[in-house]
């Protein structure tokens, strides 16, 4: 099955600008960044709970096991402040969908302030846990922009210098210098292990959030580029339709004059050829009219109420008649479905596009299966042709990917994919095990259902 066929009028549905166009690209990008920042703020909350638990455990070990007196009241105030900050942050995250980079910076600065206060109360720069500042600097380099990261690095350096200048000294009753040095080394090892574990766990999770955000933004940019391409083609199609209207009308008048001429009226063979020419001109005029209606009408305005069964039967029958083929094998499993819907010309054209591709790849057989799956009308179009190349299946619907290698070809399925995607549907393609290809169109019925029953 090939990608080349009729160009679809892509904006017949009139449901507003497509996602990723000028009116939607920037907000989507900002929203994705805010959502990633929100997830990262939740990670900071988890890290802060770990910090509270670690500080409580460290204070208990130092005070009760090692017998080193600590200012417990002051340190408890800092711990209480961290707990309140975490609870307030959790309540705040439940009420907002996005978080700014400035909010992340504020959270990191408050964590640095809490760490500085605890270190000041427990030996200052001589405390082996002073190297926890590196964890805050690393998180800042990953989470916030370059300027904010430098601000955070400057604050931590300033805090460490201040702690080297002034702090509350610790007293080690009953410990000589060798024991104090051993405790310091043990503290450094414990802090290194804690830093390494937290960095691996949290920086990895932060990096995953950022990669997911970048992938989403890349997909939005790709969609914006594709839909911008559709806009340009829609404008070209609309302009071409206007330009073709006059010569088609002239051809219709000329053919009418010829049919009245004695020389043509006396020849049955010429009369049949004139009739075929008139049908072809009428078909062209119908296509031009459909393009113009699709360019200017809202979705459903050019369509009529119809049942699912009639829709499938009519589009298959009309297509087979107009193409003059008996290759169509229709399995209409929604023939008795009386659900009333309004399906406009662009939906019909999408199905016709896929049928044309199948007929061109397999002139002897085109299979159509129509069924209802949950809230979708599923139409499967299959053929007995050579199928899709593997690289084309990997990125189905990309423009200018044609099995025939024709310059400018490969737009038909690209337009089908984008039209159905904008309507909330989907397109899938695969090669059949017995040979040939199958394209599956899924149309969301809630978007087209009407309350009044259509006349069967």
Report on this structure.
- Helix content is 62%, strand content 9%.
- By secondary structure, it is of the alpha+beta class.
- It has 3 domains: 25-223, no CATH class; 225-296, Helix Hairpins (Orthogonal Bundle), CATH 1.10.287; 305-447, Heat Shock Protein 90.
- The strands form 2 sheets. The protein has a 5-stranded mixed β-sheet with strand order 2-4-5-7-6, with helices on one face.
- Helix 1 (25-65) packs antiparallel against helix 2, helix 1 runs parallel beside helix 3 and helix 1 runs antiparallel to helix 6.
- The chain is rod-shaped, with a radius of gyration of 35 Å.
- The model is unreliable at 2-29, 296-302, 405-409 and 452-456 (pLDDT under 50).
* Gap between N and C termini: 34 Å
Lateral strand order in the biggest sheet: 2-4-5-7-6
Number of domains: 3
Low-confidence regions: 2-29, 296-302, 405-409, 452-456
The arrangement of helices and strands along the chain is HHHHHHHHEHEEHEEHHEE
Task: Give the integer mean of the pLDDT values.
Answer: 76
Structural class assignment: alpha+beta
Radius of gyration: 35 Å
Helix share bin: 55-70%
Major sheet: size, sense and barrel closure?
5 strands, mixed
Q: How would you sum up the global shape?
A: rod-shaped
How many helices?
Answer: 12
Percent of sequence in beta strands: 5-15%
| Total strand segments | 7
